[in-house]
Amino acid sequence: MALFLGVFVATALFRFLALPGFPNDQHEHLAGAQQMLLGEWPTRDFFDPGMPLTYGMSALAQLLLGQTLLAEAILNCVAFGVAAACTAVVSRRLSGSLLLALTVSVLSVLIEPRPYAYPKVLTLSLTALAVVWFLSRPAALRSAVLALSVTVAFLFRYDYAAYAGVAAAAAFVVAARSDPREWHRWALAAAVAALVPLGIYAATIGGPRALVDSVGAFVEHGRLHVARNRLSLADLGWHPEGRLFFVFHLLPALVLAWVAFDWWKGQNVQEPIVPLALMAIPANVLLISDPLSARLADAAVPAAVMTAWLGGRVELPRTGWVRPVALTLGLALVAWLGRDVLLVGRFGAQLEHTEVAGVGVARLPSLFVRRAAELRERFNARQMPDGRTEHLVPFFQYLDRCSTTRHRLFVPGYAPDVFVYARRPFAGGQKVFLRLEQSPAEQKRLIAVLDRQVVGYVVVLSDVEAEWRAGAPEVAAYLDPRFAPLTEIPAPGDRIYRVFVNANLPPLGTDAMTGWPCFR
What DSSP assignment string belongs to 224-254? Predict the structure, then answer.
């Protein structure tokens, strides 16, 4: 427990200070959470690429802590703290070494998973802990917890069930070999624990058929995403990201070969490592994509626990020249890979962002207070995802004065932060209108949703306007006669935000500051 609490607190505090601001991927979570707080439900009311619990956790954080970025920051830091603590506990159990456990858990933090990646890291670490706990003394309750970890992974994002499910299935096989008479009780407890929450979720979105359709839509969405982010060998090279890519993929093969060799020699096999090594294979395949600098960290948990296990298995002779030579080579290898981890995780930038060197340890409390104050501010430029969104602040303030949450925004392009800072729901069930070639049927469905809603404004991003108009001409033909130009807001990077207002909405007055129509 002391190990868990110590790693949890240290990681959560470090991640809070090192938080560089949320990228736009995080604002996808926040926009979905905001939609839920406004009474809508993923899949049932808006398009959800298979991650309802991701939105739900952000919504819960804001419900408890307020609608600020501070709530999301606390959620992220707590999740990363729990993940690092679970990684340390599992690594200690597998290796028998506190030093190894602390080393690999620290490196799994310093490789710097992006804030929006916390569900990946959290579900991997929770599944690893559930596997080790179950196999330490198989029982019905423990099998239920293991199965629940798979369901939680699925609800965070559907494909996370692949690696969690592989680990759980392998753990059940391992346990059944040791006690074949009890497996049916474990299986029944696992089925109940997995299916009850899935059934409740399916009921909220329209039943089992809706869940099946949702998974199908996720698979199609994932196929397009993979096509855009596919890695090739030419992308890897011999740089830190490329070296760690090969190490991550080599580790499960090395672990499984070592286990097979031990089994062949008749030695006792440490059984929990088998499910965890098998979990690493789909985790590497599904989570590591382009750009490597951002995605490698997503699969760091299995790599960390396998490294700890391998380190714990190494036995060196107590005397002779082999021991110092082997120790030197081993430490050199660890230092080399550790250096690669620090480079990929941009440790220097993380440390600089904490500002600890500038203020000193004695002033850490005031630093925490200042960072929390920044995150509570609605329009803090340091926390905005890029240098362009802040140019929309006058428009957001106008929305506060002259519209309500009934007046939705439609933003063709990738700018989920616009909905978050505007505090307005997205229209058409689309927080990200990114696909450049939509079928006529898809466009008709989108138009039907827009027709049922009160869409107050359309915000067009000039740098992607030509692409979405060419890819979705029916949507463009629907919008053009219904929305009149309101203003144009220039921003860096050759972007102009073109704001249009619904021409069919009768204004209730005129905004004194801008002269634009008011609808409240």
Answer: HHHHHS---HHHHTTSHHHHHHHHHHHHHHH
